[in-house]
Amino acid sequence: MQDNADLLALVRTIPDFPKPGIQFRDITTLIHNGWGLRTAIDRMATASAPYQPTLVAGIEARGFIFGAGIAHQLGLGFVPVRKSKKLPGAVIGIDYELEYGVDRLEIHNDVLGPDDRVLIIDDLIATGGTATATVNLIRMAGAKVSAACFLVDLPDLGGTDRLRAQEVPVETLLVFEGH
Fold it and tell me: What pTM, to 2 d.p., does this model score?
C-alpha cells in the first residue's frame, strides 16, 4: 500500500462535530487543494483498475466528486447512486437502515445489466450502511460489484469488514482510527 501521508495532511479533523466525542474528518480541505484532489483521484483510480470494472457508481454526494474523476481516468461511464426522488424517469431503489430511521437509494432502472462490473466509489466509509445498500442495489439490478474504493476509512466502525463479508474487495487511501 502506498504511503498517503501527503494526502492525510490535507484532511482536517474537527473535534466534537456533529456531537461531543466525534472526531469529524473534513475532506473539504483536501478537495479544495487542486493537487490534493487530483492526487486522490489518481491514486483511487490506480488502486481500483486491477478489479477491471466496466462502470463506476458514485454514492451521493461526495462520491460524485471522486467517482466522476475515477470514471474519467479509467475511461468508463458513471452511474450516480442518488437519494430518493432525485432521478427523473423510471428507477429501482432500496431502503436501508440509518442510526435513526430509514433512507433510500436509487439508480435508473436501465443503466446496469448482467455484463456490468461496477466499481463503487464514495469519499468515506464508516459503518458501511450506505455502501452495503449500494452493493445490494447494484446486485438487485443484475450487475456484479467488482470492488469498492473510498478515500477515507474509519475501521473502528466496521464498514470495510461489512463489505468484505459480502465478498466485495475494498480499497482505501486514508485510515483514521477511532470515531
Answer: 0.96
